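REQUEST ID: PR-0412
SUBMITTED BY: lab tech R.K.
PRIORITY: routine
TASK: structure prediction, single protein chain
INPUT:
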Amino acid sequence: MRFIISGIFIFIQCFLQAQLVSVDYLMGERQSTVDVYTKPDKSIPNIILRMSFADDSILNPQVAKALKGKAVYEVNLVYSEFRQVTNFDQPELNRTRLENLKKIAPQIFNSTAVKWKFIAQTGCHNTAECQKLFHGFVILFQQPTTKETAKKDADFLDANFKPEPVDTVEEIKKKKVMVDHYYLPKAEWKRRKGIHYKKEGIWHRKRKNVYDTLLVHNKRVIYDYPFKYYMTNKKFFTDSTIFKILERNKWNKMLMVTDATGSMTQYILQLLAWTSIDSNLKRVKTIVAFNDGDNKPDIAKQMGSAGGIYYIPPQSPEFVFKEIRKTMNKGNGGGDIPENNMEAIIRGFENCKECNEAILIADNLSDCRDFPLLWKIKKPVHVLLCGTQDGVNTQYLEIARKTGGSVHTIDQDLNNLQRLNDGDTFSVGAQKFLLKDEKFVLTR
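STATUS: complete
OUTPUT:
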């Protein structure tokens, strides 16, 4: 019965998330033009759904099954601008094409992080020429992590972020230590006179310890990480999301929960560079890195117990580097994209009782496989959302709203999501959202 109820709950969740992106909304996208569309090469993971010129039928709909578990980040609808008749309605044809795509791949319309492109080809001038060109959908998705790519990402960290010891500093701390003891007399009048004894005697006198404060000298190695170099070097970073968000928001005693799968390599580099600064590392209480189940196959991942979660006390930049690298190297994620974010946050709070809020470094393109467990999180979650150039994933907006937390992109802080009422609108980058029935829906 418990499994039936869980299944019904998950179904309801999926149903409620449907239609975050409507066909009506997509019809407002601007059209771009090219002479002849060139399909992406094999180095870019993609799925192609073919159509005929001036027709709305998808010729190979079975191919859409391969999209299951994939993180789609871009959809191109490609067609020809040439019209056989002057009253031909291209927008209406595009609408029915989108409706047909929704029938075989509805999950794409449930993500607000997908970039949609309407691309009209101008290189044909009659029906025969147009029939030779490609028509249909080209769907681009993020490459799932494999054992090989996980190792490659870990090796990338080794090659580009090596801690170099450059100095040793001596820290002096005060320490309270016991240096002597004596015994108090049983008689009160003797105590008042300050009489005391060196032995307990037959009277079982009460022992009094004498403490002193000593200075303890500890040596600590200082490591050099080229923080400014990493912060500005475009070879490693296409943006500086983590740097900018942590600079703007001065959280302390942080429970930092980070996705350590392959898609996050450049953001993990930023995190390592940021924690290499002593004053920054001292703001962190503990780090929880997760890789969605180590090398566990997807079918074996139970909600709330997928595993691949590692607790990293911030002892030193070198230790943080070593442990995060180990987490990455162990995780091939089973081959799909959704991650066990909720499980990692829940385990993090269990491990750090004194932590009152969590900082989640999340992949915007990856959904939470265990999103229905959100109700278990009773403390604020502040989401540092990576890869939002084409839009934001509404799951993370919901996480922040329902926990009383916030969402942060490279240039925006959303701190008041829990104060929104049904019907309210707000913008994130170029996207505008409407809160409807406790769900965030794209609007114009």
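NOTES: The longest strand covers residues 164-184.
REVIEWED BY: pending
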